[in-house]
C-alpha cells in the first residue's frame, strides 16, 4: 500500500515537473521577447528625433533664432537618462533569460536560484524606474523657469528689433495675430516712446497690433503655448516609461514565482528518487 502510494506520488510529481518545466521554457522565450521590447523602447526614447524638433509652428525657417526645441527644458535630459537605463535593463534581461534556460534544461537549482534572484533584482529596479518616472511626470509643470526665460527673451528681442530686423518683425507679427496681443507687456509699455516725465511723445505701434488688443501682453500666452507643447511631449514619454516599467515588473514577478516553484519541484523529485 505504501509502495503504491509512493509510486503515485512520484508519478504526480513527474507530471508536475514536466508541466512546470515547459511553462518555464515558454516563459523564458516570452521574457526574451519582452527584453527585446524594453531595449527597443530605450533605443526609441534615445533616438526619437522629435526632441530636436521645434515646438511651435509660429516660425517655419530651419535656422530661425526664435524657434524653441522640445529639448529646451531639463526634463528631456531626464528622459534620455531613463532611456539609457531601459537599454541597460533590456540587455541584462536578455542575458539572464539564457541563464534561466540553462537552469531549466539542466535542472540545476543553483542556476535557477541565481536566475530567480536576478529577476527579483530587475523587478525591484523596474519598479524604482516606474516610480521615478511617475514622480517626474507629476513635476513636469514645475520645469518652467528656464522655459519662461527663453520665451520672454524671444519676445523681448522681437520687440527690441521689430523695426530693424525682418525676422523679428515676422516673428512678432505672427505672435500678435495668433494670441491677439501686442508686445511683451502691451503696446503702451513696449511701443510708446515716452519722455523723462513719462509722457507719450510718439506711438509707434505695429500694424499687426492695431488689429488686436493693443493692451494685451504676449508674454503669458506665448509662454503658455510653448509650455503646453513641451509638457505634452514630456508627459507622453514619461507615461511610456511608467507603463513599460510596471508592466515588466509584473512579468518578472511571475517569473520569480515560476522559478521558485520549479526549484522546489526539482528538489522534491530528487529527494523521492534518492529515497
TrEMBL record:
Its main location: membrane. Belongs to the tetraspanin (TM4SF) family. It is found in: Membrane. PANTHER family: RE08073P-RELATED, TETRASPANIN. Keywords: Membrane, Transmembrane, Transmembrane helix. One of its GO terms (cellular component) is plasma membrane. The chain crosses the membrane at residues 22-45, 82-105, 112-133, 240-263. It is a multi-pass membrane protein. It comes from Elysia crispata. This is Tetraspanin.
